[in-house]
């Protein structure tokens, strides 16, 4: 349902620093200056929808993004709804992508012994909004000699 070409495009949400989420999108290619978008999300199927309280706007005042604080996603599923209107008529709804930018590993420790020419490195998994399994992470270590 909704007018063709009014759906948002390139909808992406990025979670960073564990509990902040920034969502952005481009207005539909047939969207006029009076088109307005509203973003709702819920962390799981059983929770109520939460409307964005902190929109970012383009030069026409149309919502093109949202910033959320205190985001908690307990499971892998999060639900998003973007609706709105153009001249009183509904707009199309489209797909989304959600990405989490991880913090670096925590409590990195290094113990090197010159005699054995060996270093042992330990760390804890990064803080994340929803991934709790250690085997979900892969690490790359760059060693620099001074």
Structure description:
- This protein is an all-beta fold and 146 residues long.
- It has strands at residues 9-16, 20-26, 36-42, 50-51, 55-57, 63-68, 79-86, 89-90, 97-100, 106-113, 118-124.
- It starts with 8 loop residues before the first strand and ends in a 22-residue tail after the last strand.
- 19% of the residues are buried.
- The model has no long low-confidence stretch (mean pLDDT 80).
- Residues 11-97 form the Type I cytokine receptor cytokine-binding domain.
- Pfam families: IL6Ra-bind.
What characteristic shape results from the CA principal axes? elongated
Whole-number tally of structural domains = 2
CATH superfamily of the largest domain: Immunoglobulins
Percentage beta strand: 35-45%
Domain Type I cytokine receptor cytokine-binding: 11-97
Membrane topology: Single-pass type I membrane protein
Pfam families: IL6Ra-bind
GO molecular function: cytokine receptor activity
What can be said about this structure in brief?
By secondary structure, this protein is mainly beta. 0% of the residues lie in helices and 42% in strands.
Defining key terms:
146 residues; mainly beta; 2 domains; five-stranded mixed β-sheet; four-stranded antiparallel β-sheet; 0% helix
List the SSEs and their pairings:
Layout: E1 9-16, E2 20-26, E3 36-42, E4 50-51, E5 55-57, E6 63-68, E7 79-86, E8 89-90, E9 97-100, E10 106-113, E11 118-124
Parallel strand pairs: 1-9
Antiparallel strand pairs: 1-2, 2-6, 3-4, 3-7, 5-6, 7-8, 10-11
